[in-house]
């Protein structure tokens, strides 16, 4: 009889606990925020040029921290410095860090910012400046997003693309256009000189093959020759490049509703308790 009463008491307590827990609201995490990060590069540079990488944020949900890694080929680029957006650097409560590291035998820069206030600007977050050691066509850099969090310190999913024109100022655009024009002009001149030299050699051979008595005629013929030059054509890959993209593919997350788990456990407990009571009743009979 005492055992039966105890089982009924346990059963009633389980029911009360289940109802109490179900009445308490459980927090459910929202899906991660998303933003875009475009990497602006300086392509078609020659040795000695000052070149930049611009990290341009858009669709900004409001950030509290930002961390990325920019790897570069130190045989072609020499690191000069990093400039953060004025809205970041002007706040003395913010912390901006640039740490040179070596990863997989490659030089890289860890770019980090801890923001005192929610940062919601859609602008060039940071500009990294290099000096070109050698001429190159495509800038040898790769960006990897390490961690970006929103105002509540929840992870932000960042989509990263490369676009050479992103974050480029007017002066930088004009400088790059001038550099490319000079490069093309130099190539065309060298190509023309090679053709002129070849034509001059051919003229000399032709002159030597004639009799001395025909020198005047050869001279007149040579002076009438027209040297035709052709421009060296280059296939530009365009300002927008998709290679080297890195995406922080942080999946959307959500919390499992603990009420369902606990409710299932309570149901199992109640069924077990009911079975025990039934068993004791039969035994008593």
How would you describe this structure to a colleague?
This protein is α+β, with helices and mostly antiparallel strands and 285 residues long. The protein has 5 helices and 10 strands; from the N terminus they run H-E-E-E-E-H-E-E-E-E-E-H-H-E-H. It has helices at 2-23, 86-89, 170-209, 215-223, 258-284; strands at residues 33-40, 50-58, 63-72, 77-84, 95-103, 106-119, 124-132, 141-150, 156-163, 240-241. It has a 6-stranded mixed β-sheet. The longest helix is centred in the middle third of the chain and has 40 residues, at 170-209. The radius of gyration is 37 Å and the shape is elongated.
List keywords for this structure.
285 residues; alpha+beta; 6-stranded mixed β-sheet; 4-stranded antiparallel β-sheet; 5 helices; 36% helix; elongated
What's a quick, concise take on this entry?
With 285 residues, the protein is an alpha+beta fold. 36% of the residues lie in helices and 31% in strands. The protein has a six-stranded mixed β-sheet.
**What can be said about the biggest beta sheet?**
6 strands, mixed
User: What share of residues is helical?
Assistant: 25-40%
Estimated structural class: alpha+beta
Unreliable segments of 5+ consecutive residues: 209-256
The proportion of strand residues reads: 25-35%
Shape label:
elongated
Query: Cα distance, first to last residue?
Result: 12 Å
Strand order of the largest sheet: 4-7-2-1-9-10
Q: What's the SSE pattern?
A: HEEEEHEEEEEHHEH
**Average pLDDT, all residues:** 74
Tell me the number of strands: 10
How many helical elements?
5
The Rg value, from CA coordinates, equals 37 Å
């Amino acid at each position: 009889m005492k055992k039966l009463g105890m089982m009924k008491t346990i059963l009633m307590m389980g029911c009360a606990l289940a109802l109490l827990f179900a009445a308490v609201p459980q927090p459910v995490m929202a899906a991660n925020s998303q933003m875009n990060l475009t990497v602006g590069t300086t392509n078609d540079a020659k040795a000695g040029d000052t070149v930049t990488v611009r990290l341009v944020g858009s669709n900004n949900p409001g950030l509290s921290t930002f961390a990325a890694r920019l790897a570069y080929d130190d045989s072609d680029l020499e690191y000069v410095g990093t400039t953060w957006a004025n809205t970041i650097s002007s706040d003395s409560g913010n912390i901006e860090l640039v740490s040179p590291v070596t990863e997989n035998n490659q030089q890289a820069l860890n770019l980090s910012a801890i923001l005192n206030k929610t940062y919601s600007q859609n602008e060039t977050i940071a500009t990294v400046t290099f000096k070109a050691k050698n001429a190159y066509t495509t800038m040898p850099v790769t960006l990897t997003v390490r961690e970006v969090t929103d105002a509540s310190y929840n992870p932000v999913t960042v989509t990263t693309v490369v676009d050479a024109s992103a974050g480029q100022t007017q002066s930088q655009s004009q400088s790059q256009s001038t550099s490319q024009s000079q490069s093309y002009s130099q190539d065309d001149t060298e190509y023309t000189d090679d053709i002129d030299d070849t034509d001059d050699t051919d003229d000399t051979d032709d002159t030597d093959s004639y009799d001395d008595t025909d020198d005047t005629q050869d001279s007149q013929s040579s002076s009438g020759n027209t040297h035709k030059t052709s421009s060296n054509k280059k296939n530009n890959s365009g300002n927008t490049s998709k290679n080297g993209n890195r995406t922080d593919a942080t999946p959307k997350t959500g919390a499992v509703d603990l009420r369902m788990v606990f409710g299932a456990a309570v149901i199992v407990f109640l069924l077990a308790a009911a079975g025990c009571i039934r068993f004791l009743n039969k035994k008593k009979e």
